[in-house]
Write a structure and sequence with these properties.
Layout: H1 5-8, E1 23-27, H2 53-65, E2 70-74, H3 84-93, E3 97-102, H4 115-121, E4 125-129, H5 135-142, H6 146-159, E5 171-175, H7 186-201, E6 207-210, H8 217-225, H9 229-238, E7 253-256, E8 262-263, H10 266-270, H11 305-308
C-alpha cells in the first residue's frame, strides 16, 4: 500500500484551535466483516487489532469524570469487539448518548443475531454506511450481496422503531462518492435516498450524511496507483471554504485508537498524527482527564481540505448548504 502522509506534509491548511469537548470517538479496532475501497481505516476481516478491556475501562473512567455528551463508537465493525455491549451499557448508565457507526451487514454475522434488539433497548443512535441507494453501485464498492443484506438490516431496524421522525431511535445513513469527486448537495441527495428507499423497500431513516473520501489509507493508495492523487488534492484545495472551519469535527471531538492513544480526529489517527498536548509525544486518553483542551492547537495537514471542500464534510455530514 502506498503511504500518503509524505504527500500531505507540506500543508497550506489554516491553523485551527479546539473548542469545548462534546464527543469522544472511540475506535475499538480494525476488524471488519467487509473490505471497502473507500475505507480510510483499511479495515477488513484479516485485521486483528482490538482494544483491550483495560483500555475500555480507561474510556469509561474518562466518561465518568469529564462532561462529554456523546460517545461515538467506530471501527472496523465495532460490534465485533467482545466488549462492545459492555461499553454501550456502561456509557448509557452514565447518561452519555451513544452512537454506533454500523455497516449494517454486521447484523447478519454469526453471533450478532440479537444485535439490533440490543441497540434499540439501549437507545443507541445508529449511523449506518450505505454509499448509494442503487444496488449495482453498492455491490461494486462493497462486494456482491452487500446491498440486499443492508436493506434487510434497515428493515429490521425500522421494525424496532428506528428511523421514525418523531421517535427516539435515530437512524442516519452515510453516503460516500464512488471515486475522486466531491459529494453532491446533501439535501437533494437525501431526498433522492428517501424517495427510492421508501418506494422500493419500505425503508425510512432520519438523516443522510454526505462524506468526502479522504486521500489516506486504502482510498489514498488507490489514488496514487491510478495517478489521480494530485488531481484529487487540487480539487479539494480549490473547493476549500473558510466558512466550514468553525464547524469541522476536530474542534469538539477527541479520537481514541484501539491502544488508548488520542488524536484530533479519526483521519489523524489513521495517519498516526497524535494530539499535541503539553509537549507529550503520544498522549493517552487517561492523560487528558485533568488537561484543559479548549484553545489547544489542532494538528493539520493537507488531508484536512477533505473536511472543508465544497459543502464541507465531517462525521455528521455536510457543514454548510
Amino acid at each position: 500500500m502506498h503511504a500518503t502522509l509524505p504527500l500531505l506534509e507540506q500543508t497550506t491548511f489554516p491553523p485551527l484551535k479546539r473548542a469545548a469537548l462534546e464527543t469522544l470517538q472511540v475506535n475499538l479496532g480494525y476488524k471488519c466483516n467487509q473490505s471497502c475501497l473507500h475505507c480510510h481505516v483499511n479495515a477488513g476481516p484479516s485485521r486483528t487489532e482490538m482494544m483491550s478491556r483495560e483500555t475500555i475501562d480507561e474510556v469509561l473512567v474518562f466518561l465518568g469524570v469529564r462532561p462529554v455528551a456523546k460517545l461515538d463508537i467506530t471501527g472496523g465493525a465495532p460490534e465485533l469487539h467482545p466488549h462492545f455491549r459492555l461499553l454501550v451499557r456502561e456509557a448509557r448508565a452514565l447518561g452519555v448518548h451513544v452512537i454506533d457507526r454500523c455497516n449494517l451487514t454486521v447484523l447478519e454475522e454469526p453471533g450478532q443475531e440479537h444485535l439490533a434488539e440490543f441497540l434499540a433497548q439501549h437507545r443507541v443512535e445508529v449511523i449506518a454506511s450505505l454509499p448509494c441507494y442503487l444496488q449495482d453501485n453498492v455491490d461494486r464498492q462493497r462486494g456482491d450481496g452487500v446491498f440486499q443484506r443492508s436493506i434487510r438490516a434497515l428493515q429490521r431496524l425500522n421494525a424496532l422503531g428506528y428511523g421514525r421522525p418523531d421517535g427516539d431511535l435515530p437512524l442516519n445513513l452515510v453516503y460516500n462518492p464512488q471515486g475522486p469527486s466531491l459529494p453532491p448537495p446533501q439535501a437533494q441527495l437525501e431526498a433522492d435516498y428517501r424517495k427510492h428507499l421508501r418506494e422500493r423497500y419500505g425503508v425510512r431513516f432520519n438523516r443522510l450524511y454526505t462524506l468526502a473520501n479522504m486521500p489516506i489509507q486504502r482510498f489514498g493508495s488507490t489514488l496514487v496507483s491510478k495517478g489521480q492523487f494530485a488531481a484529487y488534492m487540487k480539487l479539494l484545495k480549490h473547493s476549500h471554504r473558510d466558512e466550514n472551519l468553525d464547524s469541522v469535527m476536530c474542534r469538539a471531538l477527541v479520537s481514541v485508537d484501539w491502544r488508548g492513544f488520542v488524536y484530533d480526529c479519526d483521519f489523524n489517527q489513521m495517519l498516526n498524527l497524535p494530539m499535541a498536548i503539553d509537549g507529550k509525544p503520544r498522549p493517552r486518553l487517561r492523560e487528558l482527564i485533568g488537561t484543559p483542551l479548549e484553545g489547544a492547537a489542532i494538528v493539520v495537514k493537507d488531508h484536512c481540505f477533505g473536511c472543508t471542500a465544497g459543502q464541507g464534510s465531517s462525521c455528521g455530514g455536510a457543514l454548510s448548504g
